[in-house]
Structure formats: structure tokens, C-alpha cells
Design goal:
By secondary structure, the protein is mainly beta. It has a single domain, classed as Lipopolysaccharide (LPS) transport protein A like domain (lipopolysaccharide transport protein A fold), CATH 2.60.450. It has 1 helix and 10 strands, in the order αββββββββββ. The mean pLDDT is 81.
Amino acid sequence: MNWRWATLTAVLAAVVIGYGAYNERRAPPGGPAAPPPAPAYYLYDAVVSETQPDGSLGMRLNAKRIEHSQSDGSIALQDVRVNYFQAPEREWLLTAERGLIPAESRIVQFSGDVELSPVEEPQNWLRTQALAIDAERNIAYGLGAPAALQFGRHAMTVQNFMADLNTGAVRLESVNGSFRSP
């Protein structure tokens, strides 16, 4: 009778081992997550300068990280500081947590504690969570987030804006603000 128990135990062990091996060959239902695609290139603590056709400085961009995506051709920026010289005789300073340049686009999108101000008038500023700059037309505009503006003794909050970086003219929509007299 012992040989029957030994045979039965051996057969059951073979079935259990075979079943375990079969289950390991099959992929789990969700499968392992695929790693994100590697960037085409990336830079740390980068300084990028762009010149205009006449050779003058058009823009100086400092970023903690710049990453070019292989999958869609976009460029992602982190901890961004931009000195923007393309507007005639006016330098603008922009800071933001993140930036995005879609592939083949002249529009640069910024998000996260964005601040834009003329360098020669730092008391005048615009702060928002999201804005875009059309680098070809030198226009900055809101991306749906409310913006706070300070110019001189005046402060206001707006729902939407468009600023011409060449002239400094700003078009505001849905304004809520205060004007203080001297």
C-alpha cells in the first residue's frame, strides 16, 4: 500500500508543479507596465540663447531640465527663466515651473507660478498659472487661468488677457480690480 501512496503523491506533485509552470508562462492580466519612451535628448542646468537674423540676442532661456520627446517631438522644460529680447527696445523676464514647446510650433506654453514683467519696471508684473507666448508675433496670452496684474499703484485680477510684448499694450477681459489714487 505504501507504493500506491508514494505514486499518488508523486503524480499530485507533478500536477502541482506543471500547473505552476504553466501559470508563470502566461502574462499577468495587466502585464508589467512598459517603461516610458526615452527622450531623444535631455539637458540639465541648461542655458539656451537664440539670436535674431541681425545677430542680436533674441532670447536667453535657463532651465533646470530640458527634454525632447521622441514620441511627439515636443520639448518639455522645468524650472524656467526666460529673458525675452525680441520686442524692440524692451526686455521681458518670464519665470515658470514648466514649459512646453509642441513640435514644429511657434507657440510656447508655460504653467505653474508664471510671472511676466518688463525688466526695466519690475514693479509691474503679470502672474498666472498658465500662459502662452507666440514667439513669431511677440504676443502673450492667457490659457484659461485667472491672472493677477500689478502696474504702478493699480492691481487687478482678470479672467483672460492678451499682451503685445512689442508695445506693452494689454487687452483684458472680465476685470476685477482696484485703482488707488496718490
